[in-house]
Amino acid sequence: MGTPSTHFSESPEDPFALGRAASAVLDDRGTVVGWSARAQELLGYPAGKVLGRAWQDLLVDAGDLPVVRSVVVAAVKAGGWFGVLPVRHRDGHRVEMGFRARAIAREGGGREWFLVGAPASEVIAWQRDRALLDGLYRRSPIGLVTYGPDRAVIRVNRAVEKASGVPAEAPVGRRPREFMVDEDAGPADERVRHVLETGEPLIFTEQSARSRHDPGRERIVSVSAFRMEDPSGRVLGVAETIEDVTDRHRAQRRLALLNEASALIGTSLDVTQTARELAGVAVQGLADYCSVDLLEPVMLGDEPVSGTAGPLLRAALAPPERRVPFQEGDVVPLLPESPQARCLAERRPILEALLSLRPEWYAMDRRRIEIATGLGVHSLIAVPLVARGLVLGVVSLWRSRNSEPFEDGDAAVAQELSSRAAVSIDNARRFTQQQNAALTLQRSLLPSVASDLPAVEVACRYLPASGEPGIGGDWFDVIPLSGARVALVVGDVVGHGIHAAASMGRLRASARTLASLDLEPDEVVARLDDLVSLLATELEANAEGNHSAIEQVLGATCLYAVYDPVSQHCSLARAGHPAPLVSTPDGEVTVLDLPAGPPLGLGGLPFETFDLDLPEGSLLTLYTNGLLEARNGDIDAALRDLHTCLAYVTDPLEHTCNTVVEALLPKDHRPIDDIALLIARTRVLRPQNVASWQLPLEATAAARARELTTAKLTEWGLSELAFTTELVASELVTNAYRYATGPATLRLIRTHCLICEVSDTSHTSPHLRRALSTDEGGRGLFLVAQLTERWGTRYAHDGKTVWTEQPLSPA
Q: Shortest CA distance to 101 belongs to which of 159, 23, 36?
């Protein structure tokens, strides 16, 4: 039992140390010739009872004697022995003792045996400690480094050697600054100094560790350290345990990256912004460069065709790098042999850990290879962006400054990151598609305001609410009417979004239709009220529990105004809408006190027309209530600001519109309600551009109309229209002679077109009909319709007016 040994320790922890172990000396015959006080303490025999006696007669039971004899034989052959043997105590009980025996030559010849012993429990514990210490340095998977008081390395175990690749003896005698990269060596040296000086242990402190012989390989280690002291308290150095937690750290970092991505990607419903967010997150914790290239239909908001690839448009590049050949918005060629092409074709991530090992890498575009090499690019991951089974594009992740190549774990994170981002990009694409459709609808419903109207100069603003950008229920219109007049309309449908826009479109179309009938403003509003009531009834019958559409129609408001540039007369009617403002040329701004009327669809009260005359250059401002409610709901303050802005009557209208918006809307905020603003500056047709005659209804009236028409057109320099116009005037006067009573009025108006009007006291509506070949008459209105660009009839309380328009050739 045991192995030969000739070593006797002086360590105070060693149970065989001479200061704490029992000792005895035997001669060649096995006679005890020396006995220590510690031996007496452990076995009970005083020296006088032991000296001169054979050890086997005194210290060993008969039953244990064969085992002891075999040990003696082995010790004699080896010259020494170490192990555990049973020994008899003086009182007779058996004691397990650990022994070390060594043969010592005597000067006169022969030899003696020097034995030291200790209780077996102490020996076994000591052996276990020795085995633990040996295991820490030779077999432990956890690194161990010991430093001396000068912070130089005394010893490292094999785990450190294996993890770092540095031979175990290389750091010995050196400080961390001499064998670690500077940015890692500083914290390591400071850590040792802190423990050495304060005695405070460190537990599981994580830090980077890179050796100078391989600076590109970063390892994350968990370090625990304590100060070593001898029994007297003298500082011997510092011991560190080092555990490689690189994989765990990277897993945590990747998980944190994915968690962060959930908060940072998809903050808006904008395709380009979402792509930029994806690229920005990728370069924060995974790559040095990231590009996001999307299929062209995706960028436009359309759905990509399944099974097709390219062309790609660069949606994002992070960080910005001018040397990269393709910037945001550029078309990116998809080379068939490239990793990106394979990624899209196979619909899986492509990991190129070391691009220098890929022959096809050098077969690609030489210019792109040169630029990538100049940037230090050495590793690549290409990941497809796939959502709902459709390929949207590709994400390319590059490493250059980070010398470690991508790993499979990085590719898995990149795929998860791209999968999440693809959903956000597809949501943004679908929103863009729907928004484009809604905006197309909105633009088709709102008018393109003409700027060359003879009656007014107009400027307008339309600002939808923040809920759905570009889509709202407010509306306005500028409708040319007969006689160079113009109708100005502003309306407000309750609510926002596509349903409100659709309701708005129906009302605007109806208002245009009613305007074409040249009805009085109160009649137009009354008929719109009837229409809304009818629409509400239809919606209620088909609502199926959805009452929002009904609420959007009921309660809509409207303001309708007609201005005549000849008479400078303006007529207005409103249905629950904010009253308009009038700014006179002297800068005075007033709110017109016209009857409010109920909102459309509620019924029960009549609508009234309000009449006034407007001086030339007056501003008539129509708006929806969102304009006054945009700024904190303080309507009185908003109205005062609106008065101030509209007092500058001579300013350009576009400037005035901008001033109103800036004054009444908070900066950098979309309004909470839709806003429509329409400002019109009145014009006046000069008397020299208007000619009017009253003709008695007699047989010579038509001839007189031709004479007057020809003379006036000659005066105006429009002789080329004389024949056509005198024929039109003759036919209209003839009809008045046949079907009306009282005098007729012939009026010619020269604006951007030539207007011919004949008014009489009859309310009989003229009809265009196809005359038979045998009919003697009935072809007058047919000729009028063929010879003019437009014609129509408007009614007043005292009769009707038939009008025509002919275009004028540009001067």
A: 23
User: Which of 499, 632, 622 shows the shortest CA–CA distance to 572?
Assistant: 622
Secondary structure class of 699 (helix, strand, coil): coil
DSSP string, 182-225: HHHHHHHHHHHHHHHHH---EEEEEEEE-BTTSTT--EEEEEEE
- Retrieve residue 601's tokens: 């669809």
Q: CA-CA distance, 502 to 764, in Å (whole number)?
A: 37
Phi-psi group of 587: left, alpha or beta (phi > 0 → left; psi -120 to 50 → alpha; rest → beta): left
pLDDT in tens, 234-259: 888 888 888 777 777 677 777 777 77
Residue 726 and residue 747 in contact, taking contact as beta carbons nearer than 8 Å: no
Q: Strand, helix or coil at 232?
A: coil
Name the token pair of 335: 């080379």
C-alpha–C-alpha distance, residues 10 and 371, integer Å: 69
- What b/e readout covers 166-179, taking b as 16+ CB neighbours within 10 angstroms? bebebbeeebbeeb
Task: Identify the residue whose tokens are 């030539």.
Answer: 754
CA 751 to each of CA 378, 455, 483, 624: distance values in angstroms, whole numbers, following the listed order: 74, 10, 10, 32
Supply the pTM of this predicted model. Answer: 0.60
Tens-digit pLDDT profile for residues 609-639: 999 999 999 999 999 988 888 777 678 888 9
Give DSSP secondary structure letters for 567-620.
TTEEEEEEEBPPPPEEE-TTS-EEE------PPTTT-SS----EEEE--TT-EE
Residue 98 makes CB contacts below 8 A (sequence gap 6+) with 15, 16, 82, 83, 84, 117, 118, 119, 120, 122, 123, 124
Neighbours of 339 (CB within 10 A): 22
CB 598 within 8 A of CB 533: no
Q: Name residues whose C-beta falls within 8 Å of residue 787's C-beta, 6 or more positions apart in sequence.
A: 724, 727, 728, 806
End-to-end CA distance of the chain: 129
Tell me the C-alpha distance between 441 and 445, whole Å.
6
Q: Which DSSP symbol is given to 430? A: H
pLDDT score of 776: 44
Q: Quick one: DSSP state of residue 663?
A: H
Cα–Cα distance, 656 to 679 (Å, whole number): 9
Give 718-774 as a DSSP string. Answer: -GGGHHHHHHHHHHHHHHHHHH--S-EEEEEEESSEEEEEEEES--PPP------TT
**Strands 456-463 and 753-760: what pairing?**
unpaired
For residue 311, whether the previous peptide bond is cis, meaning omega lies within 30 degrees of 0, is yes
Which amino acid does the sequence have at 81?
A: W
Instruction: Average the pLDDT over 182-197 and give the result.
Output: 75
The gap from C-alpha 172 to its chain's centroid, in whole angstroms, comes to: 52
CA dist., res. 289 & res. 287, Å (int): 6
3-state SS class at 449: coil
CA–CA separation, 383 and 386 (whole Å): 9
Alpha carbons 685 and 455: distance in angstroms, whole number = 8
Q: What are phi and psi of 553, to 5 degrees?
A: -80, -50
Residue 44: phi and psi, rounded to 5, are 85, -5
468 has pLDDT over 70: no
**Of the candidates 431, 633, 578, 607, which has an alpha carbon nearest to the alpha carbon of residue 520?**
607
Element (H, E) at 240: strand 235-244
Yes or no: say if 129 and 13 are a contact pair by the CB < 8 Å rule. yes
